[in-house]
Design a protein that fits this description.
mainly alpha; disordered C terminus; 9 helices; single chain
Length: 274
């Protein structure tokens, strides 16, 4: 497992573990992301069951010994279910930016989970029939993750006032500039990942950008409002998305390595756009 994939796996696991802990602490589903249907009975019980799955999944992903591949598959299935449940709400609220944000954050996390499952399967000693399926899911995950980024960028342009309001005042330059700049960065990264042109570089820079937001935006906001569930959730989402970006960088790095059997068995690198 490469360094980018290992870093992404750790951050993604921390994000999932933290989601579960928040569910236990606040006794409610993950804000915005975990859409339990109104018709579902015993919602509190389901909240704690899902919290347990998130905690177990996060811990196992962080471990090399506790079936991390199976846990990543479980998390991918759980996040896929969340994504499916997001669709009716989004369709009923097409003019609500927060609904777009929640749905596409869910898509990004779901995509990252399948990329992680493939990475863990690819590095496993024992090959299974799941490997080919997970490779296909990871390929879909690449495009799913890439699609989310232009959407996030568009939301930065539409809701630039909100984005500018959360940028710390000590950062030089106009907050409005940074709102638009980060919107452009999202769009450029998404187009690169989707097209394959400088895709690995784009995913790496995206991971750095998301990581900087964790440190300079979300951690200070949590420290300023430690009892605010919304701020904690936003921090966990940012950590998990940062992990997703690094997982994508690792996936793209692996995809660019081929073996030329006509000469020798050393891996050779092709352009990321291949």
């Amino acid at each position: 497992m490469g360094s980018a994939t290992r870093l992404g796996s750790g951050l993604f696991g921390i994000g999932m573990l933290a989601f579960g802990v928040l569910n236990f602490v606040f006794g409610t589903p993950v804000l915005g992301l975990e859409p339990l249907p109104d018709w579902l009975p015993a919602q509190t019980l389901w909240t704690y069951i899902i919290a347990l799955l998130l905690v177990v999944g996060g811990v196992c992903v962080l471990s090399d010994r506790l079936r991390p591949r199976q846990s990543a598959i479980m998390l991918g299935g759980l996040l896929s279910l969340w994504l499916i449940l997001q669709v009716p709400t989004l369709l009923a609220n097409l003019h609500n930016g927060s609904k777009w944000t929640s749905a596409f954050e869910c898509l990004a996390l779901c995509s990252a989970a399948w990329v992680l499952a493939h990475a863990l399967s690819d590095s496993a000693t024992v090959r299974t029939s799941w490997n080919g399926r997970l490779r296909r899911l990871a390929d879909i995950g690449r495009y799913g993750f890439g699609i989310t980024l232009p959407v996030f960028g568009a939301l930065h342009f539409i809701y630039w006032q909100y984005v500018a309001s959360v940028i710390p005042g000590w950062i030089p330059g106009s907050p409005v500039f940074w709102a638009y700049f980060t919107g452009c960065a999202h769009i450029a990264a998404g187009l690169a990942i989707l097209s394959g042109v400088q895709a690995r570089l784009a995913a790496t820079m995206l991971g750095i950008m998301f990581g900087s937001w964790v440190l300079i935006v979300h951690v200070p906001r949590v420290l300023a409002s430690p009892h605010n569930q919304s701020e904690w959730t936003s921090l966990c989402v940012a950590i998990a998305l940062c992990g997703g970006a690094w997982l994508m960088a690792g996936y793209l790095a692996r995809s660019s390595v081929t073996v030329d059997t006509s000469q020798d068995h050393r891996p050779q690198r092709e352009p990321a756009s291949a």
